[in-house]
Amino acid sequence: MRPFHYQHASDRAEALTLAATAPATTQYLAGGTTLVDLMKLDVMRPLTVVDINGLAGEHGEVVLDGQALHLGALARMADVAEHPAVRREFPVIAQSLELAASPQIRNMASLGGNVLQRTRCSYFRDTHWAACNKRAPGSGCAAVAGVNRRLGVLGVSEHCIANYPGDFATALAALVPPWISKALLRAASSLSRIFIACPAIRPISKPRSGLAS
Ligand SMILES: Cc1cc2nc3c(=O)[nH]c(=O)nc-3n(C[C@H](O)[C@H](O)[C@H](O)COP(=O)(O)OP(=O)(O)OC[C@H]3O[C@@H](n4cnc5c(N)ncnc54)[C@H](O)[C@@H]3O)c2cc1C
Ligand code: SF4
After folding, report:
1. Do 50 and 127 fall within a single domain?
2. Which residues does residue 141 pair with via DSSP β-bridges, in sequence order?
3. What is the pLDDT of residue 23?
């Protein structure tokens, strides 16, 4: 693992300021279950890591206000999966979270980090393979002729055949109408530059008439 600077943000403004100094080499740290893994593997090499767990009070909420489900980016997978309102009104979200990973990881991992997790393609995670367009854009793709060349079947190209591994986002895609999905994906893609995933995750609207009494 390479040396890096660790900084702690106590509010949103501080988190944004800390990352704005060097956005290309700064990563936010939530549960760390993806980031620390990839840093140990030398796949991600941030020079600065900004711990945003101090914002959990402000951005860790799970609220069903009658019309929309509000999920904070720092809500933990386990807490959302166990939340009575989520289980009752959005069982597909609860199932996507409680069937993922392991109890230990679900206790640590946040929803924001879950949405932003990286591919599990083994060529991406093993830096002995020089060719990986996701890790080093323009370097090629070792997987297309590799042992897992059938990694993905739909939505792939000769540039990358990896699929997205997150179950939660897949559940969201099942819930959200196609016209919202694009906006959601656009918002999600900008999340590595800004720190809060809430705008991407909420509101997942459900018609009031569909709510159980
Ligand atoms: C052994 C194992 C098994 C797994 N199995 C599954 C599975 O079956 N299904 C599944 O869906 N997932 C699975 N995962 C992935 C796991 O769910 C993710 O690692 C986890 O959700 C990431 O959340 P985190 O809070 O730990 O993110 P971190 O590791 O802290 O962050 C991940 C990335 O997101 C960025 N980030 C985090 N929060 C924010 C934010 N609020 N704003 C902007 N950027 C942010 C970080 O900078 C980093 O780049 C597995 C992981 C492991 C290690
Ligand atoms: S499929 Fe190819 S480009 Fe995509 S992550 Fe794997 S090695 Fe990298």
Report:
1. no
2. 132
3. 87
Ligand 2 pocket residue status of 118, Cβ below 6 Å = no
Q: Which H or E run includes 178?
A: helix 178-189
Q: How far are the Cα atoms of 12, 61, 141, 170, 213 from residue 16, in angstroms, in the given order?
A: 6, 20, 34, 28, 40
Confidence grade of residue 158 (pLDDT, cut at 50, 70, 90) = confident
Question: Looking at the DSSP assignment, which residues form a beta bridge with residue 110?
Answer: 76
Task: Tell me the C-alpha to C-alpha distance, in Å, between residue 27 and each of 51, 188, 193.
Answer: 9, 15, 9
Predicted TM-score (pTM) of the model is 0.86
pLDDT in tens, 31-67: 999 999 999 999 999 999 999 999 999 889 888 876 6
Cβ-proximal residues to 191 (8 Å cutoff; 6+ apart), any chain: 112, 115, 116, 197, 200
In a domain, 210, yes or no: no
In a domain, 170, yes or no: no
- Tens-digit pLDDT profile for residues 184-193: 555 554 433 3
Domain range spanning residue 102?
59-116+175-197
Mutate which of 38, 41, 118, 121 for ligand 2 pocket (most atoms within 8 A of beta carbon): 121
Q: How many domains does the chain have?
A: 3
Q: Is the shortest distance between the CB of 161 and ligand 2 below 6 Å?
A: yes
Mutation choice for ligand 2 from 132, 159, 164, CB with most ligand atoms inside 8 A:
132
